[in-house]
Amino acid sequence: MDIRLIVEEVAASYGTRNVFAAVSVELCAGETMVVSGQNGSGKSTFLRLLAGLQRADAGQITYLAGNEAFDPRDAGHLIGWVAPDLMLYRDLTARENLRFFAAVRRISLDDHAIDEVLARVGLAGRSDDRLAAYSSGMTQRMRYAYALIHHPPVLLLDEPTVTLDERGAEVVDTVINAQRRHGIVVIATNDPRELRYGDLVLEFGST
Amino acid sequence: MVQQMAQVGKLLIGLWMAGVTIVMFLVIPQYEGLGNAGRIIIMHVPTAWVSVLAFAISAIFSGLYLWKRNPTYDDYAVAAAEGGFLFTALATVTGMIFSQVVWGIYWNWDPRQTSIFVLLLIYAALFALRSAIDDVQRRRQLSAVYSLFAFVTVPFLIFVAPRIADSTLHPNCVFIQGSTCDGITLDVGKIGLLGDRKIQLIALEREGDLVTAEVIVSEPGLSSETTLRPSFNLATGTMADRPEFPGVRYQLGLEYVDPSITSGLLNIEAPGTGVLDNRITLFTFLASIAGFTALFFWMLNLRANLLGLQWALAQRDGGRV
Amino acid sequence: MAGHSSTEQDPGLTLTTQQPVAQQRIVDLLQAAWAVFVKDLRIELRTRYAINAMVLFAACTAMMVSIGTTFIGLRRTEEALLIQASLLWIALLFAAISGLSRGFVHEEETRTLAALRLAAPAIAVYLGKFLLNLALLALLGLITSLLFIVLVRVQVGSPLAFLGMLAAGGLSLATSTTILAAIITRASFKNALFAVLAFPLLVPPLIIAIQGTAATLADGGGVVALPALQFLIAYSVAMFVASLLLFRFVWEA
């Protein structure tokens, strides 16, 4: 599917403190953008704005999918978001979590498909454990499973490999490379190994 | 130019309210049974009206804020709520004073008291909510939602009002044109309810043109009974003697007696019935309503501008609000 | 606005695509709402935070009332019935306040709000939580009235009307507090604030519910309670519609 992300003059602030002002950028399918900058420069906030979890103080963010335009707040079906502050239900098992999110997204996901997704992120065999029993690395893997079940054309990754081991980082590498072929990837990171993904680098802060 | 007009407007409101106050205390006549306490209605009813108006205006600006997301609308919604809270408190206090003087109790959970109590609670809840949310945008949005949501309950309060108390202290038949207190027609020896008082017509005695009724009155919840003797003049067709119920300034009137003198129409006569029949009082009353309304809008504008200024300053300094 | 339905529609669902799109969206919404409800119910049954708090609260209140009143040996006067109805609704109200915010507050505490916001339509979330609160209230209502019948010697003259009042009162409670629970999740002092926000909105339905319930405790009170029932249902409908219209603003705040 043809997908475009248009960011026009977007600004964000916390209370009265401006985090960033007037960011404009445009991304098409197949493009990857890396957002970097020191801590507190607004990388995560920018990704939250793109995910529609927060409202921009000024400016406009639009997703164009096919012939339709979406405000980020209505574009949940286009977006997969992975971030340290993404949490899933700790009292449910991995399988129950994915089954629930598939149900509210109105996509069919049978047990076989769930096993497939969990195998893809390296959680095969732990699908019937509650998330409360997961380590932080496994939690991060689970976030990818959550973000990928609906095959979103846009992936928003905030610190994609945080707490992951070597194997986990490889999983993320596979996911990003697969996504870049047909969709948009936005990565917020300061990790030099991840900066190389960017067709485009947006540098925040120090202004 | 605009500033000058605002100055003139401010002055006018001040003079107007001063005039209303002077007339209220010095010009309008006293009312039979109410004494000087009756003058408080010139303040009480307009403040009550403004507190409801303020609530509606706050809800309207809350809706506008959700629609347009202009912080100015939120400033106005807050200012209206603050002003409304003040006037609600004033209406409650003036009402309680009047109630104590005239009816002998401060609080009765009568319909209008219940409504204004709920209004006070809603305002208080709104302020509590605002102070509990740190993020400015979120605070504005959530309090706007609460304000609108609470406003939905208003029609139900109005509907509920007449049902929660059989009797109301609020003198509808005194102040509101068109509403009546019908009273009750009793045969000799029969028992009936007048408001929440049980009354029994023991006897009717005729002396010349004067018919005197002997009535036993039982106060609600009290075992004590009192005998009252209201009378009726057959020749003129008017009430003669109207004794007061014990402890309150309501009177028991004998409004009519049938020609055979076997039954009579007994009714509560609120003191000051027809207060607004007096021209001067009516005009003072209306002037007071207009004055309070203007005062409220002036306060609303002033406070909203101040809030806007505060916000602009805070933003310029990059400080915290 | 375009639908929330995913681009990866399951082929099994295309069967329904001949129906008008709007109808399909409503069905999707209701099914998503049901999924939210089932998820919350499952979590609630595993953790039992809300149920424990509410039932314990109701039990304690019933015990206290029982200790305080059984010695009096109230005659079944109109006043006695009103007092019993008031005590019953006080127990119900405070137990409900202690548990009804749970659905949303739990999402905030486990920081799952963002995941839910991205995946579920706002209205579906509201409806799911509303159903959960209804279920909790149904359970609470039954347990509390049983406790009152057993411990406080409340005699129900018109059982059917009594159940009706309980249901209508519970409906009013759920419709007026579910959106408030969503509002307070983003605030500090959540539980105290919940009570403060809820109470003014609950005054009208509670007055009516208490009077109606008192009527149903008497024999043949069903007819007397009918206007109260109508009022509570009208109130619930108004609050429900207002919630549906306003919830989006809360959810996106």
TrEMBL record, chain B:
GO terms for molecular function: heme binding; heme transmembrane transporter activity. It holds the Pfam family Cytochrom_C_asm. InterPro entries: Cyt_c_assembly, Cyt_c_biogenesis_CcmC, Cyt_c_biogenesis_CcsA/CcmC. The chain crosses the membrane at residues 12-28, 48-67, 79-103, 115-133, 145-165, 280-300. Signal peptide: none annotated. GO terms for biological process: cytochrome complex assembly. It is a multi-pass membrane protein. Keywords: Cytochrome c-type biogenesis, Membrane, Transmembrane, Transmembrane helix. The keyword Membrane applies. Its main location: membrane. It is found in: Membrane. GO terms for cellular component: plasma membrane. The keyword Transmembrane helix applies. Residues 29-160 form the Cytochrome c assembly protein domain. Belongs to the CcmC/CycZ/HelC family. This is Heme exporter protein C. It comes from Candidatus Chloroploca asiatica.
